[in-house]
């Protein structure tokens, strides 16, 4: 399977809009002016993070159980769906997907999920 689902927390920003954190990727953040833009930015941020992990043979974490996520005041839980194949097609069309798809890491960590 090429689709991954990870929880995120959308936080209302004091200056307006939202900022996003990912419980499974503590170094990954993004922001947006409205819900739609924030969701799109979250997909892109998660994509960059996951693609970097893929390129560096770093295993993906299992998604955190939803009931164990602590929501702060003015935040809400949003599941982010990330499609690796679509991301590669959209952002790396000049790359040879065969190289990515043939890697043992991709087979073990993406297709198996």
Short description:
By secondary structure, the chain is an alpha+beta fold.
Q: Would you kindly provide a written description of the structure presented here, covering whatever features stand out?
A:
By secondary structure, the protein is α+β, with helices and mostly antiparallel strands. It is 37% helix and 24% strand. The chain has helices at residues 35-55, 84-91, 97-101, 104-111; strands spanning 3-12, 18-21, 29-32, 75-83. A 4-stranded antiparallel sheet has the order 3-2-1-4. A hairpin with a 5-residue loop joins strand 1 (3-12) and strand 2. It starts with a strand and ends with a helix. The model is unreliable at 96-106 (pLDDT under 50).
List the helices and strands and how they pair.
Layout: E1 3-12, E2 18-21, E3 29-32, H1 35-55, E4 75-83, H2 84-91, H3 97-101, H4 104-111
Antiparallel strand pairs: 1-2, 1-4, 2-3
Reported for the largest beta sheet, the result is: 4 strands, antiparallel
Order of helices and strands: EEEHEHHH
Distance between the termini: 6 Å
Overall pLDDT:
84
Structural class: alpha+beta
Q: Which term fits the overall shape? A: globular
Strand order of the largest sheet: 3-2-1-4
Helix content: 25-40%
Number of helices: 4
Report the strand count. Answer: 4
Tell me the fraction of residues in β-strands, as a range: 15-25%
Low-confidence stretches: 96-106
| Whole-angstrom Rg | 15 Å
